[in-house]
C-alpha cells in the first residue's frame, strides 16, 4: 500500500513569537488581534506561522504568499481544517495548540489531523463521557497515578482522528473507540460515523516532555517526517 509523507513541526511560544506576526495574512492578523488572551494569541500566531513555514519548506511557495482555505464540514463556512493549493497539488494542514505548545502536520493530497495536549486535566476529574464503553473499561483499570496520562492519550488519538475527518467535536468522541493507551494506536470501531468512511491511519507523536500527541491520516497510511 502507498504511504504519504506527513511533515510534522512543533514549536513552543516564546519571546520571539510576536515577530512572526508579519508572516500572517491580513485575515489571520485580524483574528490574532481579536484574541484577548495573550497565550491564545501567541499560540495562534505561532501555529499559523509554523504552518506557513512548513508548507514553504515542503512544497515551495513563499510563506507570506500562502493563502489557507478552510471549508467547515458542518456549515460550509470559512473555518475548520486547512488546505492550500501548491504547484504540486493541494496540501492539507492541521494545527494544534496546548499550553504554549504548537504542532502542525501537512500532507500532499491526503487529509490529516494532529493533536497535542499537555498532560493535565482542565477540571478536577477526567471528562470520561468522552470515552466509549470499551475505552472506559480499560481506563477504569488504570492505576490512579496513570489516569491523567491515559486519558490524555485517549483524547489526543480521538481528536487527531476527528480533525482529520473535519468533524471536530461536532461528533461525540465517545462514538469512536481507539486502542488503549498502552496499545499501538489504531481505530477499533466507530458507531454512527459520518460518511465517507475512509480508513483512518493513526500514530502517536513525541510532543515533548509533559505533552502527548497523535496524528491521523485518512485513506493513506503515513510516515511522519520531523
Ligand atoms: C477542532 C477542535 C476539535 C479543536 O479543539 P482544540 O483542542 O481546542 O484546538 P486545537 O488547538 O487542537 O486545534 C485548533 C485548530 O483546529 C483546526 N480546526 C478547527 N475546526 C476543525 C475541524 N472541524 N476539523 C479539523 N480541524 C479543525 C483549526 O485549524 C484550528 O487552528 P487555528 O486556530 O489556527 O485555526 C474543536 O475546536 C472543534 O471541534 N471545532 C469545530 C467545531 C465545529 O466544527 N463546529 C461547527 C461550526 S459550524
Q: What average pLDDT do the residues reach?
A: 96
**Spatial separation of the terminal alpha carbons:** 22 Å
Strand order of the largest sheet: 2-3-4-5-1-11
Give the class-level CATH name: Alpha Beta
Strand content: 25-35%
H-E string: EHHEEEEEHHEEEEE
Assembly state: single chain
Number of helices: 4
Give the helix/strand class: alpha+beta
Bound compounds, please? coenzyme A
**What would CATH call the architecture?**
Alpha-Beta Complex
Radius of gyration: 17 Å
Shape: globular
Largest sheet: 6 strands, mixed
* Annotated CATH homologous superfamily: 4'-phosphopantetheinyl transferase domain
Describe the structure.
- It is a single chain.
- The chain is of the alpha+beta class and 226 residues long.
- It contains 4 helices and 11 strands, in the order βααβββββααβββββ.
- It has a 6-stranded mixed sheet, covered by helices on one side. A 3-stranded antiparallel sheet has the order 6-10-9, covered by helices on one side. Strands 7-8 form a two-stranded antiparallel ribbon.
- Helix 1 (26-33) packs antiparallel against helix 2 (38-59).
- The radius of gyration is 17 Å and the shape is globular.
- The two termini are 22 Å apart.
- The structure holds coenzyme A (COA).
- Coenzyme A binds at residues 44, 47-48, 72-75, 77, 80-82, 94-97, 113, 115, 159, 162-163, 166, 168-170.
